[in-house]
Write a structure and sequence with these properties.
Elements (H helix, E strand, L loop, with lengths): L5 E7 L12 E6 L5 H9 L11 H4 L2 E6 L3 E5 L10 H16 L5 E9 L6 H12 L4 E6 L6 H14 L5 E3 L8 H9 L4
Parallel strand pairs: 2-4, 2-5, 5-6, 6-7
Antiparallel strand pairs: 1-3, 3-4
The chain binds guanosine-5'-diphosphate.
Length: about 190
């Protein structure tokens, strides 16, 4: 799959007609600073379409990107941005959960991004349980794999296998974008 076009459409904070469009939505979720923006930009082959968490404005919204004029990439708010209050973090957590439960949305796949250096945290496990409960099709991607030594990588593979039994975890680096085509193929498989 070649990315021919990618365009930011809008950020939403609640119900919106875009949610009910027939086009498939491929949503990315992860803790703040996990490299979610970097990963989306890496997959799209663009440097700066998606702003990172260092620009807080957009990160509090659910951002829709129109890809190849046929489907959406949905960038969910990064959970737990350091510079926001606990109250606001909770609001964002609720927004993420609200989206994941929004029955009318054509959510094709969720990409759960985990920091390969840190491993799955409470929020990641909560997402895993929600995705299972709502029977979403999802893919787990461990980002920042370039930071791992071989020994750490083996340990992390083990930990991921324990936390995500019977599920492939894709180790990726948004920094090098190595295996980008393989990851893109996995994400778009059965979708568009
Ligand atoms: P977001 O908050 O999840 O959108 O994270 P960003 O994309 O803003 O990335 C957070 C930080 O991690 C930035 O300093 C990035 O340069 C860095 N980063 C993102 N992906 C990678 C990666 O694959 N490898 C390494 N080494 N750093 C990364």
């Amino acid at each position: 799959m070649i990315i021919k076009s990618a365009q930011f459409i809008k950020g939403i904070i609640g119900t919106d007609p875009i949610l009910q469009e027939k086009f498939s939505q491929i949503a990315f979720v992860g803790r703040s600073n996990v490299g979610k923006s970097s990963m989306i930009n890496s997959l799209l082959g663009l440097r700066n379409l998606v702003k990172s968490s260092s620009t807080p404005g957009r990160t509090k919204e659910i951002n829709f990107f129109w890809i190849n004029e046929s489907f959406y990439f949905v960038d969910l708010p990064g959970y737990g941005y350091a510079k926001i209050s606990a109250n606001q973090a909770e609001k964002m957590r609720k927004m993420i959960i609200w989206y994941l439960q929004y029955a009318a949305a054509n959510i094709g796949k969720i990409v759960l991004i985990i920091d390969a250096n840190v491993g799955p945290k409470k929020f990641d496990l909560e997402m895993r349980d929600l995705l299972e409960e709502y029977k979403h099709v999802y893919l787990v991607v461990a980002n920042k794999a370039d930071k791992l030594t071989q020994k750490d990588a083996a340990r992390m593979s083990q930990e991921m296998a324990e936390k995500f039994p019977n599920r492939e975890v894709f180790f990726y680096s948004s920094k090098t974008s190595r295996k980008k085509d393989e990851l893109l193929k996995k994400i778009l498989e059965d979708q568009v």
